[in-house]
Structures are given as C-alpha cells and as structure tokens.
Amino acid sequence: MTELKTRNFVVGITGASGAVYGIRLTETLLSLGYTVHLVVSGAGWRVFKEELGYAVSDREGLLTGLFGSYPGSLLYHPVQDIGASIASGSFRTEGMIIMPCSMGTLSAVAHGSSDNLMTRAADVMLKEGRPLVLVPRETPLHAIHLENMLKLSRMGVKLIPAMPAFYYGPSTMDDLVNFMVGKVLDSFNIEHTLFRRWGE
Fold first, then answer.
1. Which of 49, 113, 178, 193 has the most CB within a 10 Å radius?
2. Max Cα separation, the chain?
C-alpha cells in the first residue's frame, strides 16, 4: 500500500494577484512530506517579481531558496513543457490546485483549451476524474466569469474563491493567507492547523 506522504500533487500559480497563496500552499504540502509538481505561468513569474519583490532571472535558484529546506520533494515544470509527466493521464497524482487562478486560465480550463502545461495538466484531471481545485482571484466578476465557474462546478471542479474569513480573528496577512490554504487542504482531507475552526 502506498504511504500517503509519497503522493503527488500538482500546483499551478498563474498571473492573478496573490502569488503568495500558491507559495504558501507549496510550502505547506512540502512541509507535510508530499511531492509537489509546480507549474508557474509567465504572468505568474511577473507577479512573483511585482508583488513579492523576487528576482526571477534564476527561476530554479529562486525555487530552491524558497522550498529547498522542506522534507517533501519539489519538481518544477516550465509551463511550455507540454511533454512533462503531469501532461499524461498515465502519471498518477492525487489532484491539482491552481492557486491563484486567473480568469484567463479558468476560461481555458472551462473550454478545454490545453495549449500549455498548466491547462493541459488541468485537462488531465478532468478526463481522469481526479480532484481539480481552482482558487480564482478577481473582483468584480462579470457574466462570463460566472458562467465559466458554473460550467466548471457542474463538471465537478471545486472552486474556492480567495475570500478569507474573519470569524477566527486574523491579525496578520499571514493569517488570511493561511486560512485560504487551509480551505484548500480541507478539500483534500489533509490535516492541518493553519486556522482556528468555528467552535474551537
């Protein structure tokens, strides 16, 4: 029987505001000993630079600095690498999370447009019946956004909009980020202590 800690998760980070969400998710999965297959879109790298101040000229060096100290394994796949392992349904994973998910990527997934590794990996989740979680970060929403989200929801995709709660008394930005990451982990029944639950 495969031990839980050896399982693979795919994490996508797009150019939507909130790259810190995807980074925290990756950190948390790696800290729990999981294997993470990471895909960052071109616009996602720009958000790394603009929002977080990271130097992105040496991408693999940056990722090693961010994630190299965790017990889990990180495998980085360039978004153009359509032949990567995660592009095939025969490669087994527990599911995929795109966090944050831009409306452009959400639309591509909704319409089966798999012209890069991010959207192809999401398409694989759908065709293989594996969990796919999207964390859209956009406001306000217009009708096309809502129609695409409804279409994906009807296909079994879990949508967890980046809408942190306040009932648990967050006092820092980290608290808000951890809440959203915790909600994603909840969708995979992964135990965590990232936020205080209602009634605790």
1. 178
2. 47
| pLDDT tens readout for residues 177-186 | 999 999 999 9
The domain that holds 94 is classified in CATH as: 3.40.50.1950
Do the Cβ atoms of 115 and 151 come closer than 8 Å? Answer: no
- The residue segments making up the domain with residue 128 are 4-187
Residue numbers belonging to the annotated binding site for FMN: 15-17, 41, 102-105, 137
Binding site, annotated residues: 15-17, 41, 102-105, 137, 167, 183
C-alpha 155/C-alpha 136 separation (Å) is 16
Section 168-177 average pLDDT = 95
Residue 196 inside a domain? The answer is no
pLDDT of residue 199: 80
- What residues form the annotated binding site for dimethylallyl phosphate? 167, 183
| pTM flag (> 0.85) | yes
Instruction: Please list the residues that pair with 136 across neighbouring strands.
Output: 101
